[in-house]
User: What shape does this take?
Amino acid sequence: MITAIAIDDERMALEVVRSHAAKVPFLELQQVFLDAISGLEYQKTRPVDLVLLDINMPDLSGIDLAEMLQNETMVIFTTAYSEYAVKGFELNALDYLLKPFSLSRFLKACQKAQEWKQLQPSEINGHVFVKTAEGQIRINFSELFFCEAMGNYVTLHLEDEKIISRMTFKELEKLLPSFFIRTHRSFLVNKNRIEKIEKHQVQIGDHRVPVSLSYTLSL
Assistant: This one.
């Protein structure tokens, strides 16, 4: 079962989403919200798997909200404006539904969410495979200290080696369990490996990883 909320500043649009969602057997639409801030507050206290999100809203846009959501949260944009499609996919949205969308199109987007959730690694499994120039390499979560973004590549720092993989940081975040947290726009750290927290950095083994002001509270 996929849990979800919908956020849109138009009541009629929310009613369409509610009607479609009621016909999808594996989707549980828990709440709908007329503004992004209310939806964000709900997601902080009662996180769901999926957010069905309008883009053009007052005060806080759907684009802005998507950037604030937890790493593992899936997003499907629902909007009347096709010009936002590129930005939506840059944020790794699962799908982009252009209003008015049919039930069949809505169902197709939800099936993507279902497939994506089934593909996510479990913390119990304790590892993930990443693609490198030498092929697929298994990375055990417990051995991964931190990750560093380098353009279209990421460097995974283990205790005795570094592994470089071609992927975006957003893609990497979706592959890692919840105990990997951002300390900086370019760094993800294994919270279980942090030995010391200082004002602007954390120490992990012999490494010191920067902490920016906007990510301080995530520790």
Observations:
- The first strand starts at residue 2 and ends at 7.
- The radius of gyration is 19 Å.
- The chain has a mean pLDDT of 86.
- The CA atoms of residues 183 and 215 lie 5 Å apart.
